[in-house]
Write a structure and sequence with these properties.
Layout (H helix, E strand, L loop, with lengths): L10 E3 L17 E2 L3 E4 L5 E8 L5 E8 L6 E2 L10 H6 L3 E10 L2 E10 L2 E9 L6 E5 L5 E6 L9 E7 L10 E6 L6 E7 L11 E4 L4 E3 L2 E11 L4 E10 L7 E4 L10 H4 L7 E8 L4 E8 L3 E8 H10 L1
Antiparallel strand pairs: 1-22, 2-4, 3-4, 4-5, 5-6, 7-8, 8-9, 9-10, 11-12, 12-13, 13-14, 15-17, 16-17, 17-18, 18-19, 20-21, 21-22
Length: 315
């Protein structure tokens, strides 16, 4: 009989979850979720928090930590651009920050939403104390972008992305594109299809964390959507991509490595959501996966790199 012999848990919810809540902010907030964390070059932890005000308009708010688990929010949110182009692109909301360290600085991607659908804005920063807007890096409608921390063997930048398909209900597959300068993108390849994700990702996929280079390939974490009878469930999947041709999938999980189960994931503004945002791999190969729960609070799960790779290769 052919069935999955799941032999271990891969990720474990931190007992202090949620690690950031709306009540933690210095002024009233409705929600904080889908926030991205990184361990800096000087071993600090910084999180860029997507937080919603009471009317659900967004702010991007910084937080700092010594251990990646206990967070202190800064006094004020980040200053966003005030230009006609930004105000049009972000007329509705901005969200889903992703942080990559490359070229000796931090590149931050931030999705923006307007009646034209989604464009992704790129910022740069030396230390994540302030953000400098660079440019928009796509025409609508494309989102869930993450930049690789290294260039390709031929010297180009690489990113994962999720073009949206109207025929797929605004969801779609994971793709990879190349760029000579981080602004102009092309030479695109499909990476992972929703049709490969029966059943927990059949409703849509999206790259979520900056790829991490391992001996077995580029490790990526993605969110996967399943349509239930009354709601959509967001779970966490993982895959290993070829190091030289990363549009080629070597292994991927056919079962989620984290799925909504805890009360704070099952109940909130959007129910049944574990939405991965960033992955930190420590020197001892332990991992911290930061994820949004129920579009309400920010959480972290911990585990071992070897177990995530095991799931990719065996599940």
């Amino acid at each position: 009989m052919d069935y999955a012999k799941i032999d271990r848990d891969v990720l474990f919810r931190y007992e202090g979850n949620p690690v950031v809540c709306p009540a933690d902010f210095p002024c009233k907030m409705r929600a904080v979720y889908n926030s991205s964390a990184i361990k800096t070059e000087d071993s600090r932890y910084v999180m860029l928090c997507r937080t919603n005000q009471l009317n659900h308009m967004t702010l991007l708010w910084g937080a700092d930590s010594d251990d990646g688990l206990n967070w202190t929010l800064r006094d004020e949110p980040f200053e966003m651009p005030d230009t006609p182009a930004w105000n049009e692109a972000a007329a509705s909301v901005y969200y889903d920050p992703r942080i990559t360290f490359i070229d000796g600085e931090y590149k931050v991607l931030l999705a923006t939403q307007s009646p034209h659908e989604c464009r992704v804005a790129m910022f740069r920063s030396a230390d994540l104390a302030e953000l400098e807007f660079v440019n928009f890096i796509n025409a609508p409608d494309n989102r869930n972008m993450v930049i690789f921390p290294e260039k390709s063997p031929d010297g180009r930048y690489m990113r994962l992305e999720r073009p949206n398909l109207g025929s797929a209900g605004g969801k779609g597959d994971i793709w990879l594109s190349y760029s000579p300068d981080l602004i102009h993108w092309g030479d695109s390849h499909r990476v992972l299809r929703t049709s490969q994700q029966w059943n927990f990702g059949i409703g849509g996929l999206g790259p979520s964390t900056v790829p991490f280079k391992t001996d077995q390939g580029w490790l990526i974490i993605y969110h996967a959507v399943m349509q239930n009878c009354t709601t959509r469930e967001y779970s966490v999947g993982a895959a290993l991509l070829d190091l030289d041709e990363p549009w080629k999938v070597l292994h991927y999980t056919r079962h989620p490595i984290l799925y909504p189960e805890a009360d704070y994931e099952m109940t909130g503004l959007v129910e049944h959501v574990c939405f991965p945002c960033s992955l930190i791999v420590e020197p001892d190969h332990s991992v911290k996966l930061y994820y949004g729960a129920a579009d309400t609070v920010q959480c972290v799960a911990t585990g071992k790199l070897e177990d995530v790779i095991h799931a990719c290769m065996n599940w």
